[in-house]
Amino acid sequence: MTISATIRSDATRRTVDCWRRQTSLRRFYTALGIGLLLIAMCTAMWFADEANAGHFFDRLPHILDFLSWLVPKDWNDVWRALFDIASPHDKGSQEFNFPLGRVYLWGGFYLPEHFELMLTTLNVALVSTFIGFVFAVPFSFIAARNLTPSPVLRLVVKRFMELLRAFPEIVIAGLFAAILSTGPVAAIIAIGLHSIGALGKLFYEINENIDMRADEGLRAVGANWFERVRFAGLPQVLPNFMSYALLRIEINVRISTIIGAVGGGGIGEELKLSISRGFGAKTLALVLLLFTTIFLVDQFSAWLRRKLVGEQAFMMGA
Questions:
Q1: Where is average pLDDT lowest: 12-16, 177-181, 278-282, 309-313?
Q2: Do the beta carbons of residue 236 and residue 104 sit within 8 Å?
Q3: How far apart are CA 22 and CA 16, in angstroms?
Q4: Following CA atoms 82, 85, 88, 92 in sequence, which dihedral angle do they give, to the nearest 10 degrees?
Q5: pTM, to two decimals
Q6: Which of 188, 167, 314 lies closest to 256, judged by CA?
Q7: Quick one: average pLDDT of 101-112?
Q8: Most buried residue, 70, 78, 191, 265, by CB count within 10 Å?
Q9: How far is Cα 307 from Cα 48, in angstroms, rounded to an integer?
């Protein structure tokens, strides 16, 4: 009995010693990796500072100086710029010509210019997300390992979706802008193509985790591939598909704003011009409108996601 206890004690001691050595080695490698990363970052920043004609570190204390021109002389000009109301400071310059941007609908009723630009940005995001969703759904079922037996077909579809999301939207938009001229069409194509690749990857990963018992039952009664996908796969994954699509809308609203700054139309282009010209009131009005719109889109998508997935799923997660 004593010998057996001694053997177990020695084995336990060796296990503890081994674990301590592995832990110490892991901590050493972690510290070494962090140290090398810090050295690389400091070296890169030093090189960038030396290569920068303005000297980054010398100008760093002035990084917030640009905020000074964002402070308007009259804070009411922010609301006037937002709703295209005439400003008492207007002396014919473009900085305060708020009423000139009105989009008249009928009679004296008009839509403020920035609201019309925001609607264009939202339309770009919605249309491009719809295009991405329509194409990503069938591609995701073809790319799923448990639903498509052909490895060649799966490989082709996966590589195609990787190609679509490999390039940033702004690069694709620049390419199509050179072909189709600047405007929302180039932005829709660019964001739509990238959305196909991004949503397709998320969707096929969901498809590979579905319960296959329904698929096996349909296959036993002679159902073809389309019928199995339609009646066994799609009902299980559709709520998650819609949830990711709503998330993609939020992302595409931000992306369409960025692409608008390089000629894609919408509020992004006006925001870039306003910042470059130093129009403080207009810039603040555009930032306020953009922030409010993104907040409302986020809240609406969260509400709709709960309706689609079900309140019970969120309660279980909590």
A1: 309-313
A2: no
A3: 10
A4: 90
A5: 0.76
A6: 188
A7: 84
A8: 191
A9: 50
Whether the CB-CB separation of 252 and 199 falls below 8 Å is answered with: no
Find, among 159, 173, 175, 192, the residue nearest to 262 by Cα.
Answer: 173
Closest among 227, 266, 10, 6 to 121, alpha carbons compared: 266
Q: Which residues pair with 109 in a beta bridge?
A: 106
Instruction: Decide: helix, strand or coil at residue 103.
Output: strand
- Determine contact, residues 97/80, Cβ cutoff 8 Å: no
Return d(Cα 254, Cα 284) in angstroms, integer.
17
Among residues 263, 252, 259, 243, which one has the least CA distance to residue 293? 252
On whether the CB atoms of residues 161 and 197 are closer than 8 A, the answer is yes
Q: For all residues of the chain together, what is the average pLDDT?
A: 84
Q: What is the pLDDT of residues 21-31, one digit of tens each?
A: 888 888 999 99
Q: Tokens for 33?
A: 């990796």
Residue among 89, 233, 262 at smallest CA distance from 148: 233
